[in-house]
Amino acid sequence: MPRSVNAVASRKRRKKIMKMAKGYWGARKNVWTVAKNAVEKALGYAYRDRRNKKRAFRRLWIARINAAARQEGISYSRLIHKLSESNIDLNRKVLADLAMNHPETFKAIVDKVKG
């Protein structure tokens, strides 16, 4: 009996990886084993960095809120504490946007929280 190999499925699997490796430099784009390793590594980085992106943005928002809050004479931690005390539910993304693009609205929020 002849040997049975599922060539259709294995070719499809390899084509999928090679398509993902398009644009890579050197042998990474056209040599199967090198491309497979490069794509696996890239997918690992992509998975990790989808989480790191959230951390990076939160740090950026906090830095922006802190800078704007200090111009109004209050520290970041005091501002966040007073916001939660006065039941103002604005997340850091919105606060940072207000601080950057609508400073008068941010100032109004800070004054409401202060007084």
Describe this structure as you would to a colleague:
The protein is mainly α. The chain has a single domain, classed as Orthogonal Bundle (c-terminal domain of poly(a) binding protein). It is 75% helix and 0% strand. It is built from 5 helices and no strands. Helix 1 packs across helix 2, helix 2 packs across helix 4 and helix 4 packs across helix 5. The protein is rod-shaped, with a radius of gyration of 26 Å. The mean pLDDT is 95.
Keywords:
mainly alpha; c-terminal domain of poly(a) binding protein; 5 helices; 75% helix; 0% strand
Structure described in brief:
This protein is 75% helix and 0% strand. It has 115 residues and is an all-alpha fold.
Map the helices and strands.
Blueprint: H1 7-20, H2 32-71, H3 76-85, H4 92-101, H5 103-114
Helix pairs in contact: 1-2, 2-4, 4-5
Label the CATH architecture.
Orthogonal Bundle
Number of helices in the DSSP assignment: 5
Q: Which term fits the overall shape?
A: rod-shaped
Structural class: mainly alpha
How large, in whole angstroms, is the Cα Rg? 26 Å
The CATH class label is: Mainly Alpha
> What series of H and E elements makes up the topology?
HHHHH
Tell me about the largest β-sheet.
Answer: none
Mean pLDDT: 95
CATH superfamily: Ribosomal protein L20, C-terminal domain
Oligomer: single chain
Number of domains in the coordinates? 1
Strand proportion: under 5%
Cα separation of the termini: 88 Å
Q: Under CATH, the topology is which? A: c-terminal domain of poly(a) binding protein
- Poorly predicted tracts of residues: none
Let me know the number of strands: 0
Overall helicity: over 70%
